[in-house]
Amino acid sequence: MFPFFYGVFMIHAENITSVNNPSIKTAVRLRESAAARRESSRFLAEGLRLCVDAALSGVKIYEAYILPSAAEKYAAELEPVFASAERVFSVSDAVASKLSDTKHTQGVFAVCATPDLPSEASGVDPQGIYVAAERLQDPANLGALCRTAEALGIDGIIVGSCCDVFSPKALRASMGAAFRLPIVDAPDLPALLSSLAARGMRVLGSVPDATAVKITQIALKRGVVCVIGNEGGVNSD
To answer: Are 89 and 15 in contact (CB under 8 A)?
Structure first.
């Protein structure tokens, strides 16, 4: 057992030094595989900011994996993670490298429960302002969309057949916005948009066309969805 000190409390963490530990293998699969994340309804968060954001946002944390040096360096910041995690593990440098998806890891990881994402029109506030993304395949783009939407005060994101918003790259690019911003996962985006339009929401399509009305010239009143296409340009279907 390894003692973690934070504030006036002490956490006795189990020590993991082998990259072949079953818990580590499971966490690595969550990092690498969207299918593993879907099947288990779990994902792996990496980095001090993301793990703390997850804890502060009320995301359930099953396990936290922390380098001893990180526990000492970020003791105060890690308090929400230690308080939320069901189990805390001290890991070796080799294990941290195995878990990491970055070149220079901070040595802070958390296996978290994937939030339940609504898929129907009932998950959308008809008086809100939303961005709908169709078939975004670059996780960095999807994460950046979440981050920008939160910064602009958008009420939520609708994703239709996009890459996994809880993949490591998407989470890093979102800078925690994926935990705080309401997200609707729409397997049939056209049907959902039709349903929202029937409920009185205005649906706008963004196109890379010089003749289109500039978005800066549109008054985005309440009850609107702005649809953004994928990286390949305008869809033909």
So the answer is: yes
